[in-house]
Amino acid sequence: MRPESEAELAEIVAGAKGPLVVRGGGTRAFGAPVMGEVVETAALSGVVLHEPGALTLVVKAGTPVAEVEAVLAAEGQRLPFEPMDHRALLGTRGAPTMGGMVAANVSGPRRVQVGACRDFLLGVRFVDGAGRVLKNGGRVMKNVTGYDLVKLMAGSHGTLGVLTELSFKVLAVPQAEVTLVGRGQDAATGVRVLSAALGSPYDVSGAAHLEAGVAEDASQTRVRLEGLAGSVAYRRDALLKGACAGFEVVEGMESAALWREVRDVTPFAAREGAVWRLSVKPSDAPGLTAAVRAQGIAAQAIYDWGGGLIWLLVDEVGDAGATILRQQVAVLGGHATLVRGSEALRRVVPVFQPEPAPVAALTRALRGKFDPRGILNPGLMG
Amino acid sequence: MEMPLPDPAVLAQKPRLVERLLQVLPPEAVIHDEMETRAYECDALTAYRCPPLVAVLPSSTAEVAAVLKICHDMGVPVVPRGSGTSLAGGALPTADSVILGVARMNDVLETDYENRVIRVQTGRTNLSVTGAVEEEDFFYAPDPSSQLACAIAGNIGMNSGGAHCLKYGVTTNNLMGVTMVLMDGTVVELGGAHLDPGGLDLLGVICGSEGQLGVVTEATLRILHKPEGARPVLMGFDSNEVAGECVSDIIRAGVLPVAIEFMDRPVIRATEAFAGAGYPDCEALLIVEVEGSEAEIAEQLGLILEIARRHNPVELRESTSAEESARIWLGRKSAFGAMGQINDYMCLDGTIPVSQLPYVLRRIGEMSQQYGLGVGNVFHAGDGNMHPLILFDANKPGDLELCEAFGADVLKLCVEVGGCLTGEHGVGIEKRDLMVDQFAPDDLDIQMAVKDVFDPQWLLNPAKVFPLAASLGRRAG
């Protein structure tokens, strides 16, 4: 089903007799497999409002991300949180939508500097599981009027409601960018360098370490700076004298390409295996990967967010390391999400990190309020 | 402002309640003498006062859990309180409630520069979080103007902002994890030193829930290295429209100042009389602050001044020293005090789309004439968060009510132009009854359904956020 309006969507949901599979562009197909009738938001499309001088953008949820990026670029602006494009990694086709991006709270390397998708989402309209059209938040940057359900909707994977309209804070594209690249460091050293750079006054906007064999034979430690040209040059020199001594300087388009690679995890696209996404305390990351390997699991790692985000490629044998990974993050704090895995694997391994009992109880009860009949992507998040 | 009648059954239980609280807390942490509970009768919205039944000052998460469990068992409402600096009545007690103050819980639990996080007990004041990491040149970014006194607990409850949030965001963008106690005494951990939740973003809902979903006892906060320096520039314009256009052009140019503050003529004149900062007598004044090294500041200010000059400012004053910077900020920082010299005032907090600024200021001016009450505007111009200060005389019968009616009209105007009732102060009791102007019944219902999940008996921070009529069925049930 492909409703042409919010009202039609509300009717469909209200009249649904069974489970619905909520779909934007269908490019971020992860989560536990869901059976049901497909509801696509693609026809709810278009930019509703763009006020460049107020850094404000309002779009319908089915609008393709690419269309929005073009509209913003024409005014020298962008989505600051650098949303990942999942198509290469997941082997999916189609056009990623703004609604899908929000539903999965998709952020890229710049998350470590400016915040996540959820931090730039100012307001939502959505249809809940009872078919009611609801709104929360608005289109202004500072808003504490009532409970913040905007954050709750971001990352809820269509299980609380079907998003129909979204407002964002956007930012200007900076004049210049540069990446400092170091080679041959092990993960522990790399993450320490990233921590030092992120803990400096130099406003680092990307901090990643790619293990040996991921992008090239040698490992790479990458640090990105963005801003006015003079400021970027100043901070580049300061880091080259300090945390990034001996690093190579990569500028402009080449620098941008390095971050698209990290953002989209393209080095793992053509390689076989399951892909985990782990969010941990940055300094825990190298040890965690080492501990997994010590258990006999072959793994390759890309560390983004200064080490706080690990993309881990593992052989899809047994539970693809699920038990070990989840034990580790349960002890250290954090979570592990199975982003890529066969349907068979995703049927037996919970895609999302199982939550402690009191949190799971709250989550379950919230779902019951937003979707009393349990018809929106049921079971997708476990 | 109407408050629910106290439950006589709860009032009658006071002796038993005190006895049980004394079983889990030391005697000095249970305040039940009627003279002493008066210290908790109001927050910074002093027009409304009501001493609580009892006030408790626990010193650990375990003690908070024990208190909540007792109150839950006995059906006693609980009002969480940080430092009591709410301007919205967010910590106003009811006569049948227990005030749960976190003021004694102010320890730093962990400082981790490598991962750029600090973990504190939430009774710690905002400024003393920065104080704990200053020796390593780090800071905690959200900076509400009450930061010397206000507690992190209250910052989380209200999702507090500050002058510098254009660049650094508000509390929710800097809060990474909490330990929270639910009304039934269950302790819940959300988030931590890692980024983003693995499941639903419950932390995002807790932040800004005005103490109605749980009592947050510990928080993991993001800390940042301080910038190398900061410098403001002052600009005066002879019309609000032009000042508004200048703000918009600066934002579009890709320079992101840390703050853009706006003051209108009544506030400029009041601060000049009060603090003598040497501001020009003009219609609109902007203070724009940028950060970085000397060279970076010069580069940004070069761009900003070039934009400003295109708008024919009547004054353009660059700071060349720390003294001059302080002088530029002096008037802005004393604005509230200056208005307070003239008369009592009520501070509003609505947010509007920046493009609506000239229209909204004109309408506020018209309303000021109609109501016969003076008003001055201070404004975080970069993000549209207005602070109109309405002057009234608290000793003159009917003036407070007139002022409240004026304020309500201004806030409705904010909603009408696409904004909201409150940008950083919270709803509390103050804006509770205006919620129906911003939200349809279903929009309020889904928010109240969230409260049903966390606090099924509606015991936590009663009579705030939602209109009493809207929550009636739930509170009774």
TrEMBL record, chain A:
Limits of the FAD-binding PCMH-type domain: 1-173
PROSITE patterns reported in the protein's UniProt record: FAD_PCMH (PS51387)
Any GO molecular function: catalytic activity
SUPFAM superfamilies reported in the protein's UniProt record: FAD-binding/transporter-associated domain-like, FAD-linked oxidases, C-terminal domain
Keywords tagged on the record: FAD, Flavoprotein
UniProt superkingdom: Bacteria
Record Pfam families: FAD_binding_4
Keyword Secreted in record: no
InterPro entries per the UniProt record, alphabetical: FAD-bd_PCMH (IPR016166), FAD-bd_PCMH-like_sf (IPR036318), FAD-bd_PCMH_sub2 (IPR016169), FAD-linked_Oxase-like_C (IPR016164), Oxid_FAD_bind_N (IPR006094)
PANTHER family from the UniProt entry: D-LACTATE DEHYDROGENASE, GLYCOLATE OXIDASE SUBUNIT GLCE
Name of the protein in question: Glycolate oxidase FAD binding subunit
Upper lineage: Bacteria, Pseudomonadati, Pseudomonadota, Alphaproteobacteria, Rhodobacterales
Automatic annotation (TrEMBL), chain B:
Family annotation (Gene3D superfamilies): 3.30.465.10, 3.30.70.2740, Vanillyl-alcohol Oxidase, Chain A, domain 4 (1.10.45.10)
Pfam (any one): FAD_binding_4
Database matches in PROSITE patterns: FAD_PCMH (PS51387)
An MF annotation (GO) of this entry: oxidoreductase activity
Names of required cofactors: FAD
Domain FAD-binding PCMH-type: 48-226
Annotated keywords: FAD, Flavoprotein, Oxidoreductase
The UniProt record lists the keyword Flavoprotein: yes
Keyword Metal-binding: no
InterPro entries the record matches: FAD-bd_oxidored_4_C, FAD-bd_PCMH, FAD-bd_PCMH-like_sf, FAD-bd_PCMH_sub2, FAD-linked_Oxase-like_C, FAD-linked_OxidoTrans_Type4, Oxid_FAD_bind_N, Vanillyl_alc_oxidase_C-sub2
Protein name: Glycolate oxidase
Species the sequence originates in: Thalassovita taeanensis
